Amino acid sequence: MPNNSNSNNNQRRVASAKTPTFDPGLGHLPPQSVETERLVLGALMVDKDAFTVVSEILRPETFYEPRNQKVFAAIQTLSINENPVDIITVTEQLKRDGTLEEVGGQMYVYDLTAHVASSAHVEYHSRILAQKYLARQLITFASQIETLAFDEGNDIELVMQEAEGKLFELSQKNMRQDYTQIDPVVKSALDIMQRAASNAGGLTGVSSGYTKLDDMTSGWQKSDLVILAGRPAMGKTSFALSIAKNVAVDNRVPTAFFSLEMSNIQLVNRLISNTCEIDSKKVMNGQLDDAEWRRLDTNIRKLEGAPLYLDDTPGLSIFELRTKARRLVREKKVEIIMIDYLQLMNANGMRFGNRQEEVSTISRSLKSLAKELDIPIIALSQLNRSVEQRDNEGGKRPQLSDLRESGAIEQDADMVLFVHRPEYYHIYHDENGNDLRGMAQIIIAKHRKGAVGDVLLHFRGQYTRFDNPEDSYVPPTAGGEIIGSKLNNMPDDPLGPSSPGEAPF
User: Fold this and answer.
1) Catalytic residue among 35, 92, 169, 261
2) Structure pTM?
3) What is the CA angle 389-391-466, rounded to 5?
4) N or C end of the chain: which has fewer CB within 10 A?
5) pLDDT tens-place string over residues 245-283
6) 68-119, pLDDT tens digit by residue?
7) Which of 331, 143, 338 lies closest to 237 in space, CA to CA?
8) 3-state DSSP assignment of residue 326
9) 232 exposed, middle or buried (CB, 10 Å; 0-12, 13-18, 19+)?
């Protein structure tokens, strides 16, 4: 009789293991496959190498049946400690964990291996379990959001932000990148080299439109996060718009520009000033003379049909950006994204101890997005006030440590560029005696794939525009009068206001 009793108990344990628990709160049986869970656990105990195959796919919570979670946790502990995994060792580990009786005793562990001959399909079965676990997570997530949405006391905008944050966390936790054998990577590298060789300028990325900058960077590279930083009034937004104009208007490369600070109308006004070489103040007040109206009519056509997509959503979250960026790449074939500026973004829906942690998350997310979409992302960033507090002339030059709010920005970026106008600080010559009036230094302070150094550009503040020095410099006439560049409209002060309080760019 005792033997029969034990046999009946064992049968009941097996039967209960095969019958998943129904969760009335969900209204449906959650996605699960308890039998597959048992097959995987059995395979892990009959093949000592099986755990290495599934270690990155499975976690204890992946299993639906609570007893199977405990068995896998025991197997995981043994493997991490480099101990053998079999029926005996797993049973002993469950005893040490105090969970042997909770899983159904030694007989349940034995039964897991009873119908497993090999571990041949353990990876395939493990991926089935991972998919079902993800499905359960999504159901729970949707249920929580539904509850919040039904509560009329909740701000629906905050609910949306929380939904974005939780969904982002869920996708990040379950994102896995498999390894790649080197052959296809070598082929891709050779293809890039061959395309660069056929290009007279040796460009392998998107051209910035600035000769020396392209020489040093070979263009904006796919999957790179580029940080473009500067103090207020240095012209970083003007420089970013000049790049956008060169890329999208001149070269017709699809470009997305996300502005968190300025409206679309303000951005387009700057582009009109840049493209038509009309003073930005006149673009705003409409007080153009006849020659300027003719120039506007002629050159405004360059902007028409340009593959430049503007988004002026204020307080843009990193989650909204990901959704919009994916759509732009998919539908508009966008090849470069620009963001003005990083510190105005947020990661709503996620909890942080301080602003530095949030900025770090945004920075990492931008780098991750650049890799995912395989396009360059240029994000503008502010510098802290330490630049202004340094007294000596050389001290006004920005440094990587000046990046505002988070050292993670420097760490995540593939390239960091500073926009610096020495004339703003009444510095008119460099250490070599070169005239810096009307000039801007683009300082490449970090470059993972190449050299660092300075690029000197001509800054035409009244047009919110940066030019190659060789393109914009026009010598004086015999009478000493300055002739404008391409459109014969350069004012006496090409830099615009030079005092810190006056410079609007």
Assistant:
1) 261
2) 0.64
3) 80
4) N
5) 999 888 999 999 998 888 888 888 888 888 888 887 887
6) 999 999 998 888 888 888 889 999 999 999 999 998 888 998 988 887 777 7
7) 338
8) helix
9) middle
